[in-house]
Amino acid sequence: MGVVQVKRDQMAARLTGMALPQGLAAARGAALGRLQAMGLPGKRDEYWRYTDPSSLIETTARTAAVFDPQDEPPVFGAIDCVTLVFVDGVFDAAASDDPSLAGVEISRLAEGADWAETFYGTLEAAGQSPVARPMAAFNSAFATDGVLIRVTGQAAKPVSLVYHHKSDSSDAVLHHCIKVEAGASLTILENGPAAARLNKVMEVEVADRAAFHHIRIQGRDHARRAVTHIFARLGRKSLFKSFTLTANGVLTRNEAVIEMLGDDARAHVAGAALGDGTFHHDDTVFVTHAALRCESRQVFKKVLKNGAVGVFQGKILVKSGAQKTDGYQLSQALLMDGESQFLAKPELEIYADDVKCSHGSTSGEIDETALFYLRSRGVPLRQAQSLMVQAFLAEAISEIDDEPIADDIRSRLEGWLSRHDRG
Taking the model in full, what pTM does it have? Predict the structure, then answer.
């Protein structure tokens, strides 16, 4: 049986009994057409050869035991923000704050908004070239909930999206649309595992001189599976910054697709991942420079132990005419034993002649000389290793502009390392 036929059979099985949700009919229909044309992902696809997508495309989600984090305070609990709660992919109004407190326009995907009629799915559709992203097309077709946020000025408070996982067989499809108008700014916080299996898309348009900050902590439910996408389009002198901390999860695939269309735009994408045992974490990033004097940074660090697997696939595309581009890409892994793996595929594709672009990718064990230095000064072995891990991840965490949030993430990282040391 040929590969094409296998994809068709997988598609037919996955879509059996599924119907498009109400609303946004044209956008959903177009997304379904894209999905049917490209098929579901498989291990033979170039950008899926390091990550097996089978558990993400099965008809029924595999069960994932619910984790109750009794040993730590709520994530971002000390931050003054507007909290919107989703339970197994469904908005929980009773557990959420009044959205109007954020000082921006917020509505649910199920309720709709006039501006979303022409925005929903547009960045996802544009992000399908030159690399197909079928799980994102599936999302645009079948997403059942999410938020629609439009910002016309300075948001009064950050918006915190909290995802609770209550059912061990939940299968959530969430889609968020965010428009940050010219000169406006917004900070989005995300945390929680969301479901046994999660498919999430966030489309973000950052207009001229606007700023968007995104900080995400993915939940500690170890058996969960997730595929997420961020599609961003940047205007002139705009700023986009995204940071993700992932601790555990049997399978996580985070994709970021960023298009810089306005001159002097800046886009920074960073992540820190800590994996133990049956952990597979994949960061796939595609940044397109299509304007003058734009800057991009990709900084990803992974700490892997007991056979955990980390993947990084990052590309910088500099189009013709995108002169004075400054593109930086760094992916590194700290392997705590001989069984863990780091698989990296950094790429540069440049069609302009006045650019500064670089990429680096390394993996290795803890520096024994530095470890000996700490031990010789009375630092216990586990504490010395923890200090070196924190130092290794520091560059990624430093991409967060908000220092209180960065400090909170550092403290959580320290707690994670302490718990695993005890184990």
Answer: 0.94
